[in-house]
């Protein structure tokens, strides 16, 4: 705890210095210095409020937050804002919607933007910045927090054309394989350490009469995204993070041989009738099984492994299934194929974009990017299902074992983190052809054709 | 059936039966047996899917996800948990959502119907240059998808031309209700005008002409002849408009401009599906909670359809 | 806002609206002169036309304009967006699917609605029977999407079934069938959903129309000994012809615009996409404003045959 307090004090003093240095030009807001409402902050002298008192008395002011995070996960968010409201006197209005991605763009374009939006895709942030010019760069206080508490890579996902806009909020780990510890133990199977071990284990399981893998990629209009995650994980492992970055940024062709090789590796699981689709049907049934149900046959013992992100924890029925290393289901790290590239971790998360530079909005941005909030949020999340890549997050504050596993995976010094590639690609690919071509790949299209089709759909400009 | 107005004297099959000849009655009986079979088949085909949902709404979550709803009859396991979760599992109580839906729906039905009845009358029975062209234009504009109007219309609400008062956004009057009513009205108008116009055209010209000869103006004709005759058509359209508004999520989300105070029931329904899951057990219960009001409206408005549209008129 | 506030706002809005309309009607009702009639016409029409112009015409024109611009809506690109649509091989299939939807849905939904309306007309349980067909219209889209999941859901033949149709196939001894995956039939299965929804609309409107057929006409035909089928063919259908056209037209237009069914069932995969869904994807997922607008314009164009048919019918009725 003491080291955290030290860090917090350091951040506060850095902020203070920045404030003094920039006090002379407080009129111009776009340069990134913090706005202040003046007056005495109600949080003066309260623990946890150190970063927020700079913004002055924000009583009666409101911050409107628009997000894709809806019930039941919204409650923990709302609870975690209480400290902010006590410190500043401002009120946070939280609006979650399933139609978030489309509606945010509509609202921003028509001049009715929320104060703050939690954007789950760096690609969408880029579109908003480039197409609307309404996103406000993050103030220095946020930038300083992100420098202190997050890795450089995370900061870069919130940066467009060298301007830093959005601090990371939550995170999830996608490189997980769900399994049943009980089933493994009963059959004498062990959690594999390498990809080859994993495939050997799969053969063993298949020989025992159980289809080793189950999967589902149906997700309404987003059908196919599960396979894009598989492919990204395989590219990270086979070709390494550098090639991955080039591929995501289209510096190499989408259908580069390295990518084709990785997709074939995915195919050795998802397109092999001996491997899938436990408890559901054959290979093609993957395409029509909702992703939420894809792993459920594990509970029934009809399937042994299911590669899916940490957030899949929410899909197990809490009344009948415990998620823990010694419980009914748990996850292991999707093993690497070689030792050249360390321990690649694929993940996702949200970013806090602001459409206003009012002091209460900046204060809220500052709060969200601090270690104080990360721990408040962890404590407020009583049911589990949330982590952050914030280095100030104390893993012991997380409730559920899977969240602890996610957080320790993210904080592992060997981990080479990469953000979900499809979320960074242009919408036409990342939320379009990549999904649909991976779906037709499952239903029979060849690796070469599918990848070539995505390549040809990449926007030219 | 007892509520049938006397203008349709033969509306009750029981009442006109004695007037038929015996051979005719036998004939009708024969065909009506086949007719009944056909009607039952259609009704079954249309109802069984919904019935599946209804059964599912009473099944526990795991059952819903792992076995078909018909298994319910082999091993009945009834739970009211789904309904309980729908009714109480939110910070805002269900009553508030219901009231919001009602508050949104009533003006959104009344306003376009009134406007459209007037406009339809003008298109049907008033003479003015460009009438046919205008009517065709209005009718063709039905094709414009709401999605196309979102950005232009919302911009106009937020930053109205001529610096008028902003209707949407943080300081909107009536908490964003006005823009929702206005938008629903706009989207309903082309179809409403088209439907009502076509019904009005069927009213015999002689009826209107003779009233004109008697010195009645358009307003009088509209009020005394057209409105009463149009009641069934108005009721029919009213029901559909009611349903569209009641089940609408998009217009409320977009044109409410983000005010949470006035979220309708559909917002709660969308929320029920869960953050990442498809919590079908909750959704199926939610669907039936939301269905109750429209069904009551349909059943109570039905008597207006039964009353003949043009019963007793001279047209043949 | 409190509940009282909301109800009060609603009361004010409705009262204000009817107040203004009432005043207009009363003021214009006294006018008898030629110019006065013009004013009356304007009073009847202007509110609707103004709203439609601002809310539909203006966005439509803006869409046409945008279709000549790029993804961000800033650079003029001429006909590039249209060229993209025409040269993309997948779009041909999209157009074909759209055509199948627009032809099949109105015909089938109207036929079912009409037959059912005639069959249950004056039957003992008419109200209840009509409510059954009407039900799908009243169920929200989320409800409908789960309903059909429980109908079409596919599991391997050996597995436990969730979809009712596959359960039936299985119990009769057939293999289970991938309703949403197998091209080209999957489009038909999606159309079935739309028919299921729209039949209630057709039934309600047509039933009101059937009830309007003067009793003496029916009676005369009955006395002539016309069979039920002949009555249907020679009396009922011609009498409600204008309503039939209205219903067919309305369902065609709704079908052209519908994308939710495709969106929730297949996400446009497996060769089931339609124009309206492509428009939605380009506008709200790929954020390609220009291409999305061009697709919307294509939908506008497709309504032309329906409009022309209606103009012809109007002329015919007028000529009588």
Automatic annotation (TrEMBL), chain A:
<feature type="signal peptide">
    <location>
        <begin position="1"/>
        <end position="23"/>
    </location>
</feature>
<keyword id="KW-0813">Transport</keyword>
<protein>
    <submittedName>
        <fullName>Alpha-glucoside transport system substrate-binding protein</fullName>
    </submittedName>
</protein>
<feature type="region of interest" description="Disordered">
    <location>
        <begin position="28"/>
        <end position="47"/>
    </location>
</feature>
<keyword id="KW-0732">Signal</keyword>
<dbReference type="InterPro" id="IPR050490">
    <property type="entry name" value="Bact_solute-bd_prot1"/>
</dbReference>
<comment type="similarity">
    <text>Belongs to the bacterial solute-binding protein 1 family.</text>
</comment>
Automatic annotation (TrEMBL), chain B:
<feature type="transmembrane region" description="Helical">
    <location>
        <begin position="221"/>
        <end position="243"/>
    </location>
</feature>
<dbReference type="Pfam" id="PF00528">
    <property type="entry name" value="BPD_transp_1"/>
</dbReference>
<feature type="transmembrane region" description="Helical">
    <location>
        <begin position="97"/>
        <end position="121"/>
    </location>
</feature>
<keyword id="KW-1133">Transmembrane helix</keyword>
<dbReference type="InterPro" id="IPR035906">
    <property type="entry name" value="MetI-like_sf"/>
</dbReference>
<keyword id="KW-1003">Cell membrane</keyword>
<keyword id="KW-0813">Transport</keyword>
<keyword id="KW-0812">Transmembrane</keyword>
<feature type="transmembrane region" description="Helical">
    <location>
        <begin position="282"/>
        <end position="301"/>
    </location>
</feature>
<dbReference type="InterPro" id="IPR000515">
    <property type="entry name" value="MetI-like"/>
</dbReference>
<feature type="domain" description="ABC transmembrane type-1">
    <location>
        <begin position="98"/>
        <end position="301"/>
    </location>
</feature>
<feature type="compositionally biased region" description="Basic and acidic residues">
    <location>
        <begin position="12"/>
        <end position="22"/>
    </location>
</feature>
<feature type="transmembrane region" description="Helical">
    <location>
        <begin position="178"/>
        <end position="200"/>
    </location>
</feature>
<feature type="transmembrane region" description="Helical">
    <location>
        <begin position="133"/>
        <end position="158"/>
    </location>
</feature>
<dbReference type="GO" id="GO:0055085">
    <property type="term" value="P:transmembrane transport"/>
</dbReference>
UniProtKB/TrEMBL annotation, chain C:
<dbReference type="InterPro" id="IPR035906">
    <property type="entry name" value="MetI-like_sf"/>
</dbReference>
<dbReference type="GO" id="GO:0005886">
    <property type="term" value="C:plasma membrane"/>
</dbReference>
<dbReference type="GO" id="GO:0055085">
    <property type="term" value="P:transmembrane transport"/>
</dbReference>
<feature type="transmembrane region" description="Helical">
    <location>
        <begin position="6"/>
        <end position="27"/>
    </location>
</feature>
<keyword id="KW-0813">Transport</keyword>
<feature type="transmembrane region" description="Helical">
    <location>
        <begin position="99"/>
        <end position="119"/>
    </location>
</feature>
<protein>
    <submittedName>
        <fullName>Alpha-glucoside transport system permease protein</fullName>
    </submittedName>
</protein>
<keyword id="KW-0472">Membrane</keyword>
<dbReference type="InterPro" id="IPR051393">
    <property type="entry name" value="ABC_transporter_permease"/>
</dbReference>
<feature type="transmembrane region" description="Helical">
    <location>
        <begin position="39"/>
        <end position="61"/>
    </location>
</feature>
<dbReference type="Pfam" id="PF00528">
    <property type="entry name" value="BPD_transp_1"/>
</dbReference>
<feature type="transmembrane region" description="Helical">
    <location>
        <begin position="131"/>
        <end position="151"/>
    </location>
</feature>
<keyword id="KW-1133">Transmembrane helix</keyword>
<feature type="domain" description="ABC transmembrane type-1">
    <location>
        <begin position="95"/>
        <end position="308"/>
    </location>
</feature>
<feature type="transmembrane region" description="Helical">
    <location>
        <begin position="291"/>
        <end position="311"/>
    </location>
</feature>
């Amino acid at each position: 705890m003491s080291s955290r307090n030290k860090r917090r004090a350091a951040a506060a003093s850095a902020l203070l210095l920045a404030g003094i240095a920039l006090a002379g030009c407080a009129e111009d807001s776009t340069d990134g210095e913090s706005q202040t409402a003046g007056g005495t902050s109600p949080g003066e002298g309260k623990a946890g409020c150190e970063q927020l008192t700079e913004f002055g008395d924000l009583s009666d002011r409101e911050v409107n937050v628009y997000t894709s995070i809806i019930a039941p996960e919204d409650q923990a968010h709302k609870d975690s804002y209480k400290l902010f409201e006590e410190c500043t006197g401002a009120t946070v209005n939280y609006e979650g919607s399933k139609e978030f991605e489309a509606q945010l763009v509509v609202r921003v374009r028509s001049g009715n933007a929320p104060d703050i939006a939690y954007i789950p895709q760096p690609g969408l942030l880029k579109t908003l910045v480039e197409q609307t010019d309404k996103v406000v760069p993050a103030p220095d206080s946020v930038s300083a927090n992100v420098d202190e508490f997050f890795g450089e890579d995370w900061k870069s996902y919130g940066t467009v054309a060298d301007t830093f806009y959005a601090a990371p909020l939550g995170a999830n780990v996608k490189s997980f394989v769900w399994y049943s510890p009980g089933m493994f133990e009963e059959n004498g199977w062990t959690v594999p350490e390498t990809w080859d071990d994993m495939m050997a284990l799969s053969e063993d399981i298949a020989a025992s009469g159980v289809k080793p893998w189950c999967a589902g990629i149906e997700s309404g209009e987003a059908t196919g995204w599960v396979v894009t995650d598989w492919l990204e994980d395989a590219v990270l492992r086979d070709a390494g993070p550098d090639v991955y970055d080039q591929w995501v940024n289209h510096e190499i062709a989408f259908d580069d041989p390295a990518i084709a090789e990785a997709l074939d590796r995915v195919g050795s699981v998802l397109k092999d009738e001996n491997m899938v689709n436990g408890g559901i049907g054959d290979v093609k049934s993957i395409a029509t099984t909702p992703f939420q149900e894809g792993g459920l046959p594990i509970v029934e013992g009809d399937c042994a492994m299911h590669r899916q992100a940490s957030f899949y924890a929410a899909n197990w029925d809490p009344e009948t299934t415990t998620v823990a290393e010694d419980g009914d289901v748990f996850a292991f790290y999707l093993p690497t194929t070689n030792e050249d590239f360390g321990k690649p971790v694929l993940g996702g998360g949200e970013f806090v974009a602001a459409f206003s530079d009012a002091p209460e909005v900046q204060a809220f941005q500052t709060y969200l990017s601090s270690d104080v909030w990360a721990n408040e949020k962890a404590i407020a999340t009583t049911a589990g299902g949330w982590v952050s890549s914030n280095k100030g997050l104390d893993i012991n504050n997380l409730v559920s074992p899977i969240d602890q596993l996610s957080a320790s995976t993210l904080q592992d010094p060997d981990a080479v983190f990469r953000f979900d590639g499809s979320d960074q690609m242009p919408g036409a690919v990342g939320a379009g052809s990549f999904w649909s071509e991976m779906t037709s790949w499952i239903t029979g299209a060849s690796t070469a054709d599918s990848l070539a089709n995505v390549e040809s759909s990449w926007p030219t400009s | 059936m007892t509520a049938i107005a006397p203008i349709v004297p033969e509306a009750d099959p029981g009442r006109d039966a004695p007037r038929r000849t015996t051979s005719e009655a036998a004939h009708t009986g024969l065909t009506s047996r086949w007719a009944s079979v056909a009607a039952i088949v259609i009704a079954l085909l249309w109802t069984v899917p919904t019935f599946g949902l209804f059964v599912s709404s009473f099944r526990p979550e795991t059952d819903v996800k792992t076995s078909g709803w018909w298994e319910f009859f082999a091993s009945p396991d009834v739970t009211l948990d789904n309904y309980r979760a729908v009714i109480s599992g939110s910070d805002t109580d269900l009553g508030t959502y219901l009231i919001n839906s009602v508050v949104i729906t009533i003006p959104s039905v009344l306003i376009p119907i009134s406007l459209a009845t007037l406009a339809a009358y003008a298109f049907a029975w008033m003479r003015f240059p460009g009438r046919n062209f205008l009517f065709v234009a209005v009718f063709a504009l039905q094709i414009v998808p709401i999605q196309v109007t979102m950005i232009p219309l919302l911009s106009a609400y937020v930053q109205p031309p001529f610096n008028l008062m902003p209707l949407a956004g943080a300081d909107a009057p009536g908490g964003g209700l006005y823009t929702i009513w206005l938008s629903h009205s706009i989207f309903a108008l082309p179809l409403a005008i088209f439907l009502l116009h076509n019904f009005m055209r069927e009213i015999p010209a002689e009826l209107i002409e003779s009233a004109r000869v008697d010195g009645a103006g358009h307003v009088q004709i509209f009020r005394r002849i057209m409105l009463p005759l149009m009641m069934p058509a108005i009721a029919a359209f009213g029901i559909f408009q009611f349903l569209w508004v009641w089940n609408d999520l998009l217009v409320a989300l977009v044109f409410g401009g983000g005010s949470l105070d006035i979220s309708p029931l559909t917002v709660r329904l969308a929320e029920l599906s869960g953050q990442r899951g498809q919590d079908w057990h909750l959704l199926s219960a939610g669907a039936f909670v939301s269905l109750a009001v429209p069904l009551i409206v349909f059943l109570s408005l039905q008597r207006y359809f039964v009353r003949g549209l043009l019963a007793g008129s001279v047209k043949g | 806002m409190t509940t009282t506030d909301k109800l009060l706002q609603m009361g004010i809005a409705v009262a204000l609206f009817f107040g203004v309309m009432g005043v207009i009607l009363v003021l214009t009702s006294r006018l008898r002169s030629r110019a006065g009639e013009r004013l009356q016409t304007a009073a009847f029409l202007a509110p609707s036309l103004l709203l439609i112009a601002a809310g539909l015409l203006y966005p439509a024109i803006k869409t046409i304009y945008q279709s000549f611009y790029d993804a961000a809506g800033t650079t003029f690109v001429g006909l590039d967006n249209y060229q993209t649509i025409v040269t993309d091989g997948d779009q041909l299939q999209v157009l074909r699917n759209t055509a199948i939807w627009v032809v099949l849905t109105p015909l089938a939904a109207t036929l079912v609605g009409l037959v059912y309306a005639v069959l249950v007309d004056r039957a003992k349980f008419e109200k209840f029977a009509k409510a059954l067909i009407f039900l799908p219209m009243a169920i929200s889209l989320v409800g409908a999407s789960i309903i059909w999941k429980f109908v079409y859901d596919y599991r391997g033949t050996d597995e436990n079934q969730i979809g009712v149709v596959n359960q039936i196939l299985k119990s009769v001894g057939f293999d289970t069938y991938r309703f949403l995956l197998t091209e080209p039939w999957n489009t038909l299965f999606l159309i079935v959903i739309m028919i299921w929804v729209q039949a209630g609309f057709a039934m309600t409107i047509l039933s009101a129309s059937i009830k309007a057929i003067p009793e003496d006409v029916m009676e005369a035909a009955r006395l002539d000994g016309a069979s039920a089928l002949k009555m249907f063919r020679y009396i009922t259908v011609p009498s409600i012809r204008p309503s039939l056209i209205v219903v067919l037209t309305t369902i065609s237009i709704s079908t052209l615009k519908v994308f939710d069914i495709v969106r929730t069932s297949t996400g446009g995969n497996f060769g089931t996409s339609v124009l309206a869904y492509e428009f939605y994807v380009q506008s709200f997922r790929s954020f390609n404003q220009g291409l999305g607008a061009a697709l919307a314009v294509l939908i506008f164009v497709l309504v032309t045959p329906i409009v022309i048919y209606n103009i012809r019918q109007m002329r015919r009725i007028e000529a009588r």
